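Input record, target 12 of the design panel.
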């Protein structure tokens, strides 16, 4: 019985100023919780999206992913004058030209398809 009397004494109505502050605090708490839920959903969506993109990348061959294929693209590889190509290799968006220059020295040229220029020139042989 004494508990009931004690509970009734504690539940006196608040004055209007404190009631207004209490309502603002509850509203702020609800808005904050809503923002946290939206942020958590965004993070989960980003994780699922990234996981699916990684799975797609592993399923498609690298050559179709890296080589530009916007229709018929013309890229000219400006090789040095007198360079004789012996072999070529394609890796992603780069082509390796293995050959000899005009002096007969063996060289390898790495041509970048996206940039349309030679990225590296490698001299092969004894120093």
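The sequence produced for target 12 reads:
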């Amino acid at each position: 019985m004494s508990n009931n009397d004690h509970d009734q004494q504690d539940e006196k109505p608040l004055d209007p100023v404190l009631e207004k502050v209490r309502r603002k605090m509850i509203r702020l708490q609800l808005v904050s919780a809503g923002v946290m839920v939206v942020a958590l959903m965004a993070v989960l969506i980003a994780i699922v999206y990234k996981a699916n993109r990684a799975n797609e990348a592993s399923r498609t061959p690298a050559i179709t992913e890296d080589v530009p294929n916007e229709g018929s693209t013309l890229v000219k590889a400006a090789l040095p004058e007198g360079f004789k190509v012996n072999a070529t290799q394609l890796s992603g968006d780069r082509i390796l030209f293995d050959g000899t220059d005009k002096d007969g020295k063996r060289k390898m040229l790495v041509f970048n398809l996206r940039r349309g220029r030679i990225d590296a020139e490698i001299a092969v042989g004894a120093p």
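The longest helix spans residues 16-59.
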